[in-house]
Design a protein that fits this description.
The complex is a heterodimer of chains A (about 425) and B (about 230). Chain A is of the alpha+beta class and about 425 residues long. Helices cover about 60% and strands about 15% of the residues of chain A. Chain A has 13 helices and 11 strands. In chain A, the strands form 2 sheets. A 9-stranded mixed beta sheet of chain A has the order 6-7-5-8-4-3-10-1-11. In chain A, strands 2-9 form a two-stranded antiparallel sheet. Chain B is an alpha/beta fold and about 230 residues long. Chain B has a single domain, classed as Rossmann fold, CATH 3.40.50. Helix content of chain B is about 35%, strand content about 25%. In chain B, the strands form 2 sheets. In chain B, strands 5-6-7-3-8-9 form a 6-stranded mixed beta sheet, sandwiched between helices. In chain B, strands 2-1-4 form a 3-stranded antiparallel beta sheet, covered by helices on one side. In chain B, strand 1 and strand 2 form a beta hairpin. Chain B is globular and about 50 Å long. The chains are: A alpha+beta (about 425), B alpha/beta (about 230). At the A-B interface, helix 1, helix 9, helix 10 and helix 13 of A face helix 1 and helix 2 of B. The complex binds adenosine-5'-triphosphate (ATP) and magnesium ion.
Chain lengths: ~425, ~230
Amino acid sequence: MSLFHLIIQEMQHRKLNFLLGLLSVVVAVACLIAALTLLQADEIQTELILEKKSEEVKQAGAQLEDAMRKITKGLGFNILILPADEDLSEFHLTGIVEKSMPEENVKKLAESKIVTVNHLLPMVAKKVTWPEKDCEVILTGTRGEVPQLHRALKKPLQQQVPEGTMVLGYQIQKKLGLKSGDEVKLMGKPFKVTLTYPERGNADDSTVWINLKQAQELLGMQNLVNAILALECNCATEDRVAEIRKDVGEILPGTQIIERGPPALARAEARNKAHATAVASLEQEKANRIQLIERHADFAAVLVPLVVLGCGAWIGFLSLENVRRRATEIGILRAIGLRSSQVFGIFIIKAVLIGLIGALLGYFLGYGIGVAWGKLPEAIHPQEVLFSGRWLLLSLVFAPLLASLASWIPALMAARQDPATILQEG
Amino acid sequence: MLLELKAITKSFKSGSHRVQAVDGISLSVDAGEFVAIQGPSGCGKSTLLLIVGGLLRPDAGQVLIEDTDPYVLSNDKRARFRSTHLGFVFQQFHLVPYLSVLDNVLAPALATRLPESRRRAEDLIEKFGLEQRLQHTPAELSTGEKQRVALARALFHSPKILLADEPTGNLDAENSEIVLNVLSEFAGNGGCVLMVSHDDQAVQSAQRVLGIDAGRLLPRSEKEALINS
Ligand SMILES: Nc1ncnc2c1ncn2[C@@H]1O[C@H](COP(=O)(O)OP(=O)(O)OP(=O)(O)O)[C@@H](O)[C@H]1O
Ligand SMILES: [Mg+2]
């Protein structure tokens, strides 16, 4: 016979007292663990949401960039390689290239190993009066892409304009009342209109495109080009113009290079702005989540101590009731020689046992509630991520502590009880 | 002298007035003596036994058991002293309700650091004819059986003095006889029995019967004289 045996026998004998005590420990621990587990689930949920959101932001950014690239491509030419002696300020004022360079340059570039420049398109362009129509146009000659020898053939970006055909800008076709399929004469040569462009709102609207070779003949510029257009340049650095200038300068010394299409700055700004918006929305989401977690934590900070206090009081009450009921028993145990510390021990050890059993049950109940209400996606295995050995340990320390603290005063009363008075009453 | 009481007094405050429960009792009991104290209800019998048992400190006077005054000992030492020197038997038995017969008899072992002797407990239980009841709880026993278990518990640690408060108060004649025989036997083996009772029948087993009234011992009663003769 040991004190432990006596305690176990008593718990089995007064099952209701034991079960009620156990219940309150289970409730207190379950409440604490459920709160902790739910807060943990909140945090994991937040991480998941923010991860998803930032992935979305990244994707949106990529889409934006892609769209930007497409727009840039749609507008035409990214890089313009101009003759060495071209007056750039004049060019910017008129939009027309005055000087020319040998068409040979295109070949040189195409046969070089340059990687920063793609899709080479030689062109001539001059402001002329269309004699037959008495109309000022920019006559542009283009022959489509010059294949680059050391590369796999790329899908041409710009359609060729075959000999004898003509493509019209919006204003020209509108002014002259022309449409696809019409036959016209330009400087005495016959052309067939194959395409008319919708309005672009720039010099393209006043442009007539014909085949490069024919344009060179009509303009008296055999084997000469005004400019070489390079589409879709891919550069590693932000300062792409400088990079291309260096590369092209090595092959075609003296040529001038300018960037076409939406200015790099505007593009970067747009990108920055899109990025900033995305980041702001990400921050907002983060702030919202943090606020939500804080609200939950505040709620738990009020609820958990209340429940724990309530359960503690209930355990104390049950212990007191147990002590009162066992008054004679305490008296007889004291009479046969048990020390008061042993009587104290009987009640405290009982409380610790109830605390330990209650902690185990309460932990798994609270954990179960946390898993069920945490609503984490199955994919991340909520049972595993939400299980915490540390909290189980915490429960196993906390609950016996709570139970023995709550039983402290009743146990002291039992220990100090005068055995004589009890036996007199019997 | 195994037990000596010197001018013990004890009073209780009961509402506004004091009740003198024990009023100057002196008594000496030797080893091997069976002493009965007889008196009406409320005369202070139980109070006297508690004082002798080291459970209730007297207002004045001295208790000496083997020349030791239990009331000069610390609480824990006095508890220890009780477990080595004294055995108690009560009218209400006071068995621990959730322990088996065997565990109830073994309960005094909780108080000492000595190894518990299951063998001795079983022997005592067998002696009282309860060997079939080892694992039963008190609720499953008859009143006579309960008192026999209480006796076995009181004797488990071979006390010097057995204090019995109305041990036959709840028993029929047959069971009373069993209990009284055990007490006589204990005294016969060199123990000392102090039994209080108001029952004429019970006190007849004692070698010495003292009358008590209003907390005082009466002069040698006729009964004592009768028995002694
Ligand atoms: N704790 C106490 N407080 C107040 N009065 C007490 C207390 N204990 C006993 N008394 C009183 O002391 C007197 C003696 O009581 P005690 O229990 O010793 O009598 P008793 O002879 O054992 O009676 P009974 O035969 O009925 O058991 C009684 O008047 C009782 O009311
Ligand atoms: Mg009494």
